[in-house]
Design goal:
- The complex is a heterodimer.
- By secondary structure, chain A is an alpha+beta fold.
- Chain A has helices at residues 3-69, 71-81, 93-101, 130-133, 181-185, 224-232, 276-326, 341-400, 405-437, 449-464, 489-506, 537-542, 558-568, 601-618, and strands spanning 105-109, 115-118, 144-149, 154-166, 169-178, 193-199, 210-212, 215-216, 237-241, 251-259, 265-274, 445-447, 472-478, 485-487, 511-519, 523-530, 572-577, 583-590.
- Chain A has four domains: 70-179, PAS domain (Beta-Lactamase); 182-274, Beta-Lactamase; 341-432; 440-618, Histidine kinase-like ATPase, C-terminal domain (Heat Shock Protein 90, 2-Layer Sandwich), CATH 3.30.565.
- Chain A contains 14 helices and 18 strands.
- In chain A, helix 1 packs antiparallel against helix 7 and helix 11 runs antiparallel to helix 13 (558-568).
- By secondary structure, chain B is of the alpha+beta class.
- Chain B has two domains: 2-29 and 229-271, no CATH class; 34-80 and 94-177 and 220-226, Dipeptide-binding Protein, domain 3 (Roll).
- Chain B is built from ten helices and ten strands.
- Chain B has a six-stranded mixed β-sheet. A two-stranded antiparallel sheet of chain B has the order 1-8. In chain B, strands 9-10 form a two-stranded antiparallel ribbon.
- Chain B is globular.
- Classes of the chains: A alpha+beta, B alpha+beta.
Chain lengths: 619, 282
Amino acid sequence: MTFRTKVFLIFLITVLASVSLVAYGVTFYTQRAFEQMDMQRTHALEVQFGKEFAQRGDTIVQQVENITNADVTVRMVLDLARPNADASLYLHDANGAAQSHGLDFVEFVNSDGTLVSSAQYPARVGYKNDWVTSAKNWDSTGAFLRREELPDTAALSLTAVRTQTVGNKTIYIIGGRRLDQNFLASLELPEGMRALLYRNLEPTFVASALTDANGGVPQAGEFQSLIEQIQKQPQDLIKTISWNHDPASAETFHAMPLKGRNDELLGVLLLGSSAKELVLLKREILKIASVVSLAALVIGLLLSWWVSRRITRPVVELANGARDVASGRWDTKIDVKGSDEIGQLANAFNEMTGTLAAQKEKLVQTERVAAWRELARRLAHELRNPLFPLQITVENLQRARQLGPQQFQEVFTEATATLKAEFANLNSIVTRFSDFSKMPAPEFSKVNVNEALRDAIRLFEPQFTAVGKPHIGTEYFLSDSLPEIDADSDLLHKAFQNLVLNAMDAMPAGGTLSLRSRDGGETVLIEVSDTGKGLTPEECSRLFTPYYTTKQMGTGLGLAIVQSVVSDHHGTISVSSEEGHGTTFRIELPKRQGGTALKPKAEAKAAEKESERAATATD
Amino acid sequence: MRFTKSRSLAAISAAIAALACFAAQAAPPRYGGTLHVRLRASSVSLDPGEWTPGSLSSAASEKRDTMANVLLQREAQPADSLLPQWLSGYAFLFESSMNLQRARELRAVFSAGVPGATQPLRLRVDAPGDLFKLIGERVAVNARQANLLVQVALPGSAGNSPMPASGLHLFAWHYDSLSPHAELEAFVKQLLDSADLPANSADPEQLFAQERRLLEERRILPLVLLPEYAGVRPNVHNWNASPWGDWRLADVWLDSEDAVTTKAPTSPQKNSSTARNPGARP
């Protein structure tokens, strides 16, 4: 990943993260605001419910007191106070009182608790209502919740009890109103809220006992767990119910237990707040955030592209400059303006390349001088070896003039032979130097590397097994699937020859010469290993320097030729060695030489000979 | 129109209400009747004598007085027999020996599957009107004292049709005959699906034994004896029914319609000082 891409991505991520953070923050604070508003609304509804409850209670108390203080009730008390009073005469009085005072439930109870008249359940007349007689202070007691038994079912009522006493006779007047959907309908609910009432008149959850202002509640079973939890432990609870897969359908219900006089759970008020507004607002925020994010993405893309380009352009130029320097253009200069860190870096780079160019020039000159010196030394050394025998031979000939003809003839014959040999030696030295200086450009054709290796070995095999010489064994680890490569077969042959010669020289006491080849994908890998005495790291580092040799009789050109051939084939050569364990040369040659036309081998040879002839004619 | 109460007892029903709206001369004679609760237990394998009716009757017996005196405003009498005293002559020999404690004991041995134990026992009330409903609810309240669940099913209500194979049935029995044998035979035939009475059962002792046997089966529980009302228009004079319900039309005379119209309004509530609407205050 490029630096520009990284800068681009970082900038882009930063923009997106910022937008996302803002969107999240807005959503979070909106949700919290909604929740607070919801709590406030719920609380307000609780207060309203309490007020409505108290108001209704007061109304009921007032209505019951009106019944209690009515003349007909006083007359009833007087009548029932008589011995053997006929209570059956008042069977329907409660019904009349309920109708005239707008109450759902009215009962008259005798002082002993016997039910005299009941508007809602006349069949119970004659039975005892002990709960009424068990309490004493009814006249100071307000309305309370009560389970009202009815012929077919039970109801939840808001009930008040008052007493009417005339003389020693007291009767109890019980009046109440049904707590049902009409009560819920009287509550003024804010939009998005609703009130539900569960009448806890059965020991287990009954779906039909749940009602709202319109009657039955669909999917009332969803409330079962909440109601059962309150039935187990009456306390305020909050539960969110999702009516379907749409989050907007969710409602949060605040459940409050409603208790009777004896702290028994008689009902549960559920104040529901719809999450629709919040969900819709969140969706709106999400939609806006998406649009903003998209816009920010586009703007961020353009901006980050421009910024990254602006930031990375000098860096890219620096990288290109460094690449140029690496490729040999030491005098590369970068045109970067500005005095910021990048500008300073560019200036430093320009100074560095200037210094490098100057140093390179000095180094080249130094190396050139060193090379000439080395060449002179090597030439002197090479030439001195045959010159000394020549000088001795000539001196011997001069001294031989004093001898007799026969002896002179013998000396002369021997001297001329020596002179010939040494001149041949001189010629050989000069030829080698000449060859190196005239390394031809490679003529590429299809070459089988394995065959080239075998040809190189085949040339030296007699010497490996010659009697009286140390034995050198050969091992082949050649890949059969190795393809032909584009190479100059003669140059390659020459390189391999030099490597084999080098290996032979490295194993004066004999050893094993190993040849390896394998496919390296785009390249072919070749290894030539010996089991000789090995090289030091310092020797390894200078091994391919022309005219450098570790041998007494070497010219220092063998491995230089090898490196030259490999380099001309656009390959690489390396050496690894361990003292006492031999040396391995590794050559990696590309299979194909791009942009170079191949010549048939015969044609290449002919061209070479023609070139040589032309050169000879010129000489 | 005014209402008069005959000495005989008759069931209150829609027929009576209809009778009150038309001329008394056009109505057929009535001899009285009783209210009963009958057990329908065709699919129940328990001995009916030992379960619901026993428990129910035990629970109800203590409250028959309230039913007659309070709910029916003293217009009825507690009934211990199928045939009234005026018809059989031996009804005073029947005596309810039932109590609430016994009812609870009987209820305690119910298994969960018995109707009335966990599922309510349906009490079908055939006749329309609040009074029958009130009587039915009273039966249910009484049964509840013995922990017996009874649910009243009114005519036309969703819970009343179809009638289940087992349950209770509140019905009024009208005595159409002056013969106790004929009435008892009709009882047996129509309500108890039993065989005919023996041919010589006209003997009061045998009739008594037969009725006692029927009551001991406890498939039918007499509740109250009900009065029979007849409504007469204001222009009807000297109308009196015999204790047996016969109308003595020979003594009756009529005013002209015009005179009656000018003399008095036709509203039964205002015109009849003796009118009694059962279950309502005077």
